[in-house]
Amino acid sequence: MTLSTEYFDDGHGLLHYGSGILTGREIIASAEHDLQTVKGGLPLRYILVDMTDIEQLKASSVEIREVAQINIAMAKVVGVIGVALVAPQDAPFGMARMWEAFAHATAWHTQVFHDRPAADLWLAAFRRGQAIRVQEKSERI
C-alpha cells in the first residue's frame, strides 16, 4: 500500500501520506477505514493529505466520487473539519480538486495546495479558527 495513515494531536489530526503508485482502490480503502475509525470515537478535527511523493495516480473519477460519498457519511459523524490536500503534480492536483467538488456536501473546509508549507500554514490557521479560502494561482501557467 502506498498510502500511509498517521494520527496525531491526540486523535484530532490525521495525516495521509502517499508515495509511489497510488490507486483509487487504496484511497477508497483508506476512506472506509477513516469512517470506521471516527465511528469508533476518534475526535477528528482536521486532515492533511500529502501527495508530494506520488509517482503515479491510478484513480478514476468514479473512484474519486466513491471516496467523496464515504467522506459525506464521515461528515455526519465528525461534523465540520478542515482538510488540506498537497498535490504538486498536475494529475493529483486535478483529482484533489475533483474530490473537493464531489465532497461539497460534507461542508468541510477544504483547500488544495501545490506545496506542504502552504498547507501546514492553512491548517494552523484553521486550528486557530482563522482559515480562509485561498485562491491559489497555478504555478504552471
Explain what you see:
There is one protein chain. The chain has about 140 residues and is of the alpha/beta class. The protein has one domain: STAS domain (Transcription Regulator spoIIAA). It has 4 helices and 5 strands. A 5-stranded mixed sheet has the order 1-2-3-4-5, sandwiched between helices. Strand 2, helix 1 (about 25-40) and strand 3 (about 45-60) form a beta-alpha-beta unit. Helix 1 (about 25-40) runs parallel beside helix 2 (about 60-80) and helix 2 crosses helix 3. The radius of gyration is 14 Å and the shape is globular. Residues about 135-140 have low confidence and may be disordered.
Secondary-structure topology with pairs:
Blueprint: E1 3-8, E2 13-23, H1 24-39, E3 46-58, H2 61-78, E4 82-86, H3 90-102, E5 109-113, H4 116-127
Parallel strand pairs: 2-3, 3-4, 4-5
Antiparallel strand pairs: 1-2
Helix pairs in contact: 1-2, 2-3
